[in-house]
Amino acid sequence: MTQHQENLTFDRDLDAPAGTVQQISPLLRRVVCGNPGPFTFTGTCTYVIGRGQVSIIDPGPADARHVAALLKAVEGETIANILVTHTHRDHSPAAAMVKAATGARILGCESHVRMHFSTGAANPMDASFDTDYAPDLVMRDGDGVTGPGYTVLAVTTPGHTSNHVCFALAEEKTVFTGDHVMAWSTSIVAPPDGAMGDYMASIDKLRARDDALFWPAHGPAVKEPQRYLRALAHHRRAREHSILNRIAAGDGTIAQMVAKIYEGLDPRLTKAAGLSVLAHLEDLTARGVVKADGPASLDARYAMS
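Above: the chain sequence. Below: its structure as tokens.
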């Protein structure tokens, strides 16, 4: 594998107007929510699997227009299952709305559990979680649901969040990757709920599979999953190397590292970048590569071990 082949390149070509229904494969329809932003790209992609008795994946935020578009897309059909990859507010809140309208059961990830840093500080990302999410059934690794002509299996992938789950569609050898792997951008890994060690292990888990295509919850499909996963792992290792270089150069705080590593960053993403650096530093301190002047935190000072 050459350096050129492992470079991470993004695909931001998605022609999918919000609220429209697109048939994207023999078994799949997609409806994009009108919630564009720095973390959601053009909006949350909700997928409809099958015909007649369907399952939907990531119903999206509590957006009445999006829920109406989903219900219209399956008019005359039955929604049997509402599958949720994780409990960020752009993915799961509409599950309760769709269930109320259809009686469908909610399956997939576990409910969000509030976490605190080892210092006792609250998780600054807690506001981004749907704390009302209540699944009828939590799907463990390998658990599945079936419908006419389709089988969907859970693939647990913690890292982006501790409760993140992907879903594999056996008949098309594709995986709905939620926010774990996306073609348009890398995923934020924000402690204490997100963990870099878990994220990298989940990347390796998908690398051990032989899937033809990934359908993320934001942006276009990942068309060469194995090549992209290799590039994504390489990118994370390069980011770790950049952090170690900054520490070796004397940058002891996360704020100093972010300023140097993420030059030209959208100011709206500064907090997320700091949390991503912290995720790497948590992993590096756990491995004994880096030391901190206390528990690894946003305010700690870091040095090489």
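The two ends are 31 Å apart (CA to CA).
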